[in-house]
Prior knowledge:
Layout: H1 2-20, E1 38-41, E2 48-51, E3 54-57, E4 61-64, E5 74-83, E6 86-94, E7 107-112, E8 118-120, E9 125-126, H2 131-148, H3 154-188, E10 191-195, H4 199-204, H5 212-231, E11 234-238, E12 263-265, E13 272-274, H6 275-293
Parallel strand pairs: 7-10, 10-11
Antiparallel strand pairs: 1-5, 2-3, 3-4, 5-6, 7-8, 8-9, 12-13
Helix pairs in contact: 2-3, 3-5
Bound molecules: zinc ion.
Amino acid sequence: MQVAVEDLDKAFQAFFNRVKAKEEAGYPRFKSGKRWHSIGFKQYGNGFKVAGRRLRISGVGRIHVRWHRPYEGQIKTCRVLRKAGRWYVSLACDVPEFVALPETGRVIGLDMGINALITDDKGEQVDNPRWYRQGQTELRLKQRKLARAQRGSNHRQKKLLSVQRQHEHIKNQRKDFFDKLVYELIQNYDVIAIEDLKIKNMVKNHRLSKSILDAGWGYFKQRLLDKAAEAGREVVLVNPAYTSKKCSNCGCEFENFNLSVRWVTCNKCGLSLDRDHNAALNILDRALKILKRAGRVREPERSGS
Ligand SMILES: [Zn+2]
């Protein structure tokens, strides 16, 4: 009950913050039994306990758990959730401080672009995963079946579950994709520069058309910031304005530049580059300037291009 009250409080605080920020507020809605999906416990040993490989929850008993990994440190709180007809338990633990990774002397700038999903300052690209669209198509088919099912029928209930499962599936794939990407970045670079894109503008921005970043940008950014903090890495968010429009070599503005330009050539210095590659160079440059101004000079180790 304590956790339920805290959840309610969080919902209202978030609502008030949205009101204050003059955003679309959205009053917290009542969750009926049908919408109910989680219960929480505040203290280990008070309502829940790990007994061997099982979890004991008061009022329920000993539950068999499929552990996806052993827990670390000391368990503090617990939440039992139901998602798409399946039950999950998440344990929050107190773990010892993380140890910073050894410095690599490498820095990287990333552009979230049109040609490829991500392009770095060396011109290396990460493509939009092909399975992402497939998952979306599958979802649409399932949603259509749900829409055609008669209200209140068992059939509809089944179709609803299949839509929910598909959403879960897509979410898990997306999470997996970004987790691996972030892991690679954190392992290999001391400084990672990305554009400080605002999610709200991105929805209106057709620059990124139906890519995994549409729904995953917020997750990617947060994950990167969290993991960087753990590993002692630095993520620099730079102002995205004019990163594509400017020559990364001489700083002049390209003429006749628009969204359809895939390859940029500079009339002044003769630079000729993929547009996203050029943008990534600008992003890295901006980040290094920010670090320099903050008194944390890092000599970039750039391969020529
Ligand atoms: Zn130039």
